[in-house]
Design goal:
Layout (H helix, E strand, L loop, with lengths): L8 H7 L21 E4 L3 E5 L8 E5 L4 E5 L14 E5 L4 E6 L4 E6 L4 E6 L4 E7 L2 E8 L2 E9 L1
Antiparallel strand pairs: 1-2, 2-3, 3-4, 5-6, 6-7, 7-8, 9-10, 10-11
Amino acid sequence: MVEYSGPNASSLRTFIESIEVIKLDHRESITVGAYNAIRSDSNSFYVGDMLNGSNLVYRFDRKGEFLDSIGKIGRAPGEYLGLSDFYSDPETDELYILSGQDVQLYRYHKNGRFIDQREVPDRTQSFIKLGPQFWLSLIHISEPTRLGMISY
């Protein structure tokens, strides 16, 4: 556990009970290029290699050991053009991958098996699942950010 006593420490303690540093497996075959999202559930950590990387989601156990990668770049069924965002659903053992490039939301089992995909509105860049609905953030450079909703 890491103790923090710097500026705003009391406000951080309102939201964070403890911090644990876990060193992720860093074998050359699984080097993550650049990431902008890390998600977790009770069993695993998921790291999205989105920026100049493989565009895969890497799964690690709670000790930091590499388990597998989920997703694949391409145009075949279950493959996508780019990784924009992802979500690990703790209730269903499913992982959702958003590809803004081909405006699709892909659903995988957490073991990496592709389940299905569905179209999302153009310019969707991020999302969150709340209950059975997905809330989408639709971004365009010349328009204000909008929110959309779909049910799976």
